[in-house]
Structure formats: C-alpha cells, structure tokens
Amino acid sequence: MESLAETLSRRPVVLDGGLATLLEAHGHDLSSSTWSARLLQDDPGAVQAAHAEYYRAGAEVAISASYQVSEIGFGAEADGLLRDSVQLARRARDEVAPHGWVAASVGPYGAALADGSEYTGRYDLDVAGLRAFHRPRLDVLREAGADVLAVETLPSLAEVEAVLAELDGSGHPAWLALTADGGRTRAGEPVAEAFAMAADVAEVVAVGVNCVPPSGVLASLDGPGRLPGVVYPNSGQTWDAEARVWVGEPGFDPTDVEAWLAAGARLVGGCCQTGPDDVRAIAASLESLRGER
After folding, report:
1. Whether residue 10 has pLDDT greater than 70
2. CA pseudo-torsion sign 71, 171, 1, 210
3. Which end of the chain is more exposed for a tag (fewer CB within 10 A), N or C?
4. pLDDT digits (tens, 9 = 90+) for 280-290
C-alpha cells in the first residue's frame, strides 16, 4: 500500500471530521474531563462505528480517539487505551476503506489537563517537562500500528520543540498541526517558526493548523514549498472551557477548500463541530477540483 506521504506528493487527501462531535450527535455524553476518550473504556464499538461513518462519508484518514489519553487522566490504563484507539480505527478502515490510512492522535499537554490551555499555551511545564509528558505516549502509539502520528492542536513553540525532539530519528511519519490565531500560535509566536523547525525533522510529512476558525486558516499556512499543508478547522465556534460547551455561530464552508489548496494544503478535513456532511462536501469539492485540472 502506498504511504500517505507518497500519496500527498500526487494529490490531496481527505481527513475525517470531529470524532467527539459525531459521538455526541449519536447521543453520547462527553462532558467529562476525558471527553471522547471515555468511550474507549465504556463503548469502544461506538468509537469504531464513528470512524466507519467518516470513512463512508469520504474520509481517507481516520484520526484515533487518543487525543486526551494520558497517565494524567487514565493512570496505568493509558497505554492499553492508546493501543485500543488505533486498533478501533484500523478495524473501521479495514472494513470500509481498505486503501485508507489511520492517524494516531497525539493531543497537547493542555488536552490532558482539560482546562482549555491548548487554546492559550499557558503551561506549567518547560520543554524538558513537555518531552517527558509526550515521550511515553509517542512510544506506545508508534508501536500500535498507525500509519502516521497526528500531532495536533499544539499552542506554543515550546511544545512544538518538545514533540519534534521526540519525533526526530524515530523513523515514524507524523504531521504537525497547531492551533493558531492570525498566523501566530496561541502563545503569540510566529507560526512560521514552528513550520521551519518541523522542516528539519525528516519524520514530519505535513505541517499546518487544526481547531482554528475557517476564517483563520489562510493566515496560518506555510504556503506551497517545503512541506505539504494539513488543514482541519473547527466550525468557527469558540470553546468555553469553564462551561465545556461550544458557543457562537458556525462558519464552516467547504467551498473554501480551493483557496486552502492554493495555499499549500494537501490534507483537508474538519475538527470540532464538523461532521460527516462536512467531510462529504470536502470530498466532493476535491473530486470536482481534480476533474477541472
């Protein structure tokens, strides 16, 4: 089977949408601090079914439910749940889209804290501490059988530096996605610096943004050049960490895909508050654009 990096050199690839969003739409209560990761314990079949639904909608990559899994939230059970998250996505892929890929979600330190700090970058750990936090999760996910690591929603250069140091020399492909605002990380640093750092790590196959409003995507893309772009914005709503709800009006428009592609995006999907209909529209848009070229 062709690797994801090889395919990206030829054409864009469709990512899935918000996993927790779809699970909530099916009636699951994800209001706890462990979010969708809770279902890895309580209802793994629901997680597999959600992955399958996204593949049927046209996604070529499923992102695992490991975003919020760490020892902070799950203790000694964390490693097993990380492995389970990849296996559930693999089963869905093998059933529905055997030529697709599985990405193991590597969420930021702030996700484990469940305090919204992935949207601020205000952490109590330095680079060394962040490396120690990420290292065991990366080790387990690399061995779990995912095609690529989805390092996502990073809010600061310190966390970028930490994760890249752990990826460097590992031999396992990964993409790097930041949550940003106007071309700057949530901690206020230039996103371009993160992309430049990633370009020096052979394991990184794409760089970009996720869980940003659609209107903020273009300001935070690297442009055609060193690495393919990865883009999966949220609906345009804002996360209220205290109330644990999304607020505001959605503004996700799949017709934006053409502009994202022109700016270097090659992996395109949706994040929080996007669903199968959005993925279906993205897939149709990419198919239409391929037909025009």
Report:
1. yes
2. positive
3. C
4. 999 999 988 77
Annotated binding-site residue numbers for Zn(2+): 211, 271-272
229 contacts 221 by C-beta, under 8 angstroms: yes
Total residues found in the chain within this entry: 293
Number of domains in the chain: 1
Residue among 8, 55, 6 at smallest CA distance from 230: 8
CB neighbour list of residue 255: distance below 8 Å, 6 or more residues apart: 285
**Nearest Cα residue to 172 out of 1, 5, 2:** 5
Residue 27 neighbours by CB distance under 10 Å:
7
Residues 6+ apart with CB under 8 A from 68: 34, 35, 36, 37, 107, 111, 112, 114
CA distance 241 to 92: 31
DSSP reduced 3-state for 132: helix
What one-character DSSP code corresponds to residue 124? S
Angstrom distances, CA of residue 2 to CA of 5, 202, 259: 8, 18, 27
List the single range of 53-57, 174-178, 198-202, 236-240 with lowest mean pLDDT. 236-240
d(CA 276, CA 282): 10
Instruction: Let me know: does 229 contact 222? Beta carbons within 8 Å.
Output: yes
User: Which residues carry a binding-site annotation?
Assistant: 211, 271-272
Backbone angles phi, psi at 124, to 5 degrees: -105, 15
CATH number of the domain that residue 23 is part of: 3.20.20.330
Residue 179 is part of which domain span?
Answer: 4-292
Q: What global pTM score does this model have? A: 0.94
Would the CA dihedral through 166, 172, 173, 174 be positive or negative? negative
Beta strands 229-232; 148-154: pairing state: unpaired
> How many C-beta neighbours within 10 Å does residue 37 have?
30
